[in-house]
Structure formats: structure tokens, C-alpha cells
Amino acid sequence: MTRSTIELPVTEDDRRIAGYAAAAIALTVAEAALPSPLPGIKPGLANIIVLVVLLRHGWRDAAWVSLLRVVAGSLVIGQLFAPGFFLALAGSLTSLGVLALAVHLPRCWFGAVTISVLAAFAHIGGQLLLARLWLVPHDGVFYLLPLFATAALVFGALNGLIAAHLLASPAANPVHREYA
Amino acid sequence: MKAGLPDDLRALFNAAWRGGEAVQAWHQALKVGDWLVLLLGSIVVVSSYTLLWRGGVADRAIVKRDGKTIVELSLNSARKVSVAGALGVTVIEVQPGRARVLSDPGPRQYCVQQGWLTRAGAVAICAPSHITLQLSGRDANYDSLNY
Question: What whole-number distance in Å separates Cα of residue B54 and Cα of residue B52?
Fold first, then answer.
């Protein structure tokens, strides 16, 4: 009997993405412990990681981190394939779609805050759309839209500021550090 | 935990937590376009409140006598309608977006003095005439009102 070994080569990309995804999942789990005034209103701290990855390594890596976070994060908190999982997935997919466009905005005019706010609005848009189509087939869900939009603006701006802060630190710009 | 973080992310956290010399102030992280997006976002948020939480917008006036609907009027165009009540003729006036009891033979004229009704769910009751004027809309503020 021949013993067959299946070996999956692990690239440097894989390790990097896995590391970022682990950080995002940790934030998701930590956030799940926070009380929320309304189901669905969360700071979305894991999106800070997605933003940093997007701006440093591009959209492909950001998409991996975002989707890994949704799947593994909901697995950890016991929400896999629960309605909340699909809402998070819908939100992530729409915000990734917007991120793919937003990353092409001129960097000299628009920073991480813009990208974060746009993605946050896309996130609630995707969630509400899925909720309307699937969970609550009634226009009543849009009654909550102002609350979700407020949360998206506030938390999107805060997450963007934190991401901008992280990216502006000297460690993020090794070239500048050499000259300093 | 820290060993699991990618090197560059750990370096970012370390530098940011230390609040190092070269770390910029919060407001410097915002570019012109960012302010613009924040402004637009605020406008979207505020208008979503005013659009969705304005309370029901009335679109129809319903006139009833003894609980039975006599006539339903659209609030799109101005017109006056005379309705036969218990005491005589009650005149209902409709203008775009609002309606009122213009005249009523009742002794105390409460429903006339109530003036224009604009919101969905609002009711003017001319009790002596057994006539009620009620506005209804897509989503009324109240299911019912009791006096």
C-alpha cells in the first residue's frame, strides 16, 4: 500500500493573509462581547484590518481577509450559517465591491476615512437589502435605515481614522524611516 | 498572540501605541476629499431621518358617518364636498396635502376649529353630526385615536 502525501505549498502570501485574518477574527470575537443597542449596529473593528490590508497589499488580499473573517469569525462565535452570518456575508460582499472601486480614488485627495465610510455605507446597504429580500419581506426594515446610516457614518469615520493613524506611523513607511 | 501577527502589522501597532514622534495628529489624517465624503455622508444621514421618520404623510381623506365611509377623497387636488350629517350639511374642504371641516351645523364647532389636518391618522370629529374626517397615509402615526 502506497502512502500518499498531499502537500499544500504555503506561500508567503498565505502566511501574511492568515496573520491579518487572525487579527481580524480576534477583533470580531472581542466585538461580539460588546453590548449593542440594536442587532446589527457594531463598530466593525475588524474592518480596520481590512482597510490596512487594502491600502498596503491591495484588494485581493483585503477580500481574502474580509471573507475569512466572516466565515471563521462566525464559526468561533457559533453563528455559522445563522441569519447573522448571511447578513455579515452580504455586507462584506457589497463593501468589497465598493472597496474595489474606492481604491482607485486619487490617493492625494481621498484617504482611508473616505474608503472606510463608503465601505460602511455599502455594508449596511447589502445587509438591509438581504434582510428585505429574505428575512423581513416588508418595507418596514427601511424604517431602521436612519439608525444604521448613522452608525455607518460614525463607525466608518472612526475606523478610517484608526486605519489612517496606523498607516501614517513611521513603521508603515520604512523608506521615510531610513531618511529620518 | 503577538507572535501570530504579521510583522508589519505588529510594527504598525507598536509604533501607533507608542504614539511616536512622527505619528501625525488625528485631523492631519483627513484629506480634503475625506471632509467632503464626511459632509456628504452627514447629509445622507440627516435626509434619511427626515425622509423616513417624518411620520406618515397623508394621501387620502376619509369621511365617515356613524362609522360608515361616505366618501374618500384624494389629497392631490383642491375640492369641497358637502356631506349630509345628522343635523344638516357638513362641508369638507380638501387642498393638496391637507383637509379640514369647513363648516358644520354642530353647536360647539370643535371639528371646524380644529382647522387643517395634515398628518396621517389625524381625525376631526363632528360628534353632533355623526361625521368624522380622517386622514390616512402609507404609514400612519397611529393605528387609532380615542377621545
Answer: 6
A-to-B residue pairs, Cβ atoms closer than 8 angstroms? 114
Residues of chain A with pLDDT under 50: 175-180
DSSP 8-state class, residue B117? B
Domain chopping of chain A, boundaries: 13-33+41-170
Q: A22 and B4 in contact by Cβ < 8 A?
A: yes
Question: What is the value of ipTM here, to two decimals?
Answer: 0.85
Whether pTM exceeds 0.90: no
CATH class of B58-137: mainly beta
Residues 6+ apart with CB under 8 A from A132: A138, A139, A141, A142
CB contact at 8 A, B125 and B111 = yes
Better pLDDT: B60 or A139: B60
Question: By the CB < 8 Å criterion, does B25 face chain A?
Answer: no
CB atoms A117 and B37 under 8 Å: yes
CA-to-CA distance for A94 and B98, rounded, in angstroms?
A: 41
Partners of B74 in beta bridges:
B60
- Closest residue to A143, CB basis, from B8, B14, B52: B52
CB-CB neighbors (< 8 A) of B44 in chain A? 121, 149, 153
Q: Do A172 and B8 touch (CB under 8 A)?
A: yes
Class of CATH domain A13-33+41-170: mainly alpha
How many CB atoms are closer than 10 A to CB A67? 16
Contact B12 A180 (CB under 8 A): no
